[in-house]
Design a protein that fits this description.
Number of helices: 0
Oligomer: single chain
Helix content: under 10%
Radius of gyration: 13 Å
Number of strands: 11
Shape: globular
Length: 116
């Protein structure tokens, strides 16, 4: 079992930055990779960024490449999403995800709102 808690969301203006944090606990040794997803109102949840075991493999959605950076520290205990040059279309609830053997675990989400 893995428990995930996101934090760091808020209301910002276009062009601002935010750093989201995901604190993982439980059987984190069994995690093979983690990711950030977001869901805008009326839209499906979409992948934003992933980071794999070893911390060297990262992927990003085309819409955030060059602006967002995913990182981790202390094994899988903390995963971050640094978001720069935020745009109104980045608005949504951001969820942390952990791939654990054949299961996925999710956090409760943190709201990010970017005003024009």
């Amino acid at each position: 079992q893995v428990y995930l808690v996101e934090s760091g969301g808020g209301l910002v203006q276009a062009g601002d930055s935010l750093r989201l944090s995901c604190a993982a606990s439980g059987d984190t040794i069994g995690i093979s990779g983690m990711g950030w997803y977001r869901q805008a109102p009326g839209k499906e949840r979409e992948l934003v960024a992933t980071i794999t075991n070893g911390g060297y493999g990262t992927t990003y959605a085309d819409s955030v490449k060059g602006r967002f950076t995913v990182s981790r520290e202390n094994g899988w205990n903390m995963v971050y999403l640094q978001m720069n040059s935020l745009k109104p279309e980045d608005t949504g609830v951001y969820f942390c995800n952990a791939a654990y053997f054949t299961r996925d675990f999710w956090g409760q989400g943190t709201q990010v709102t970017v005003s024009k």
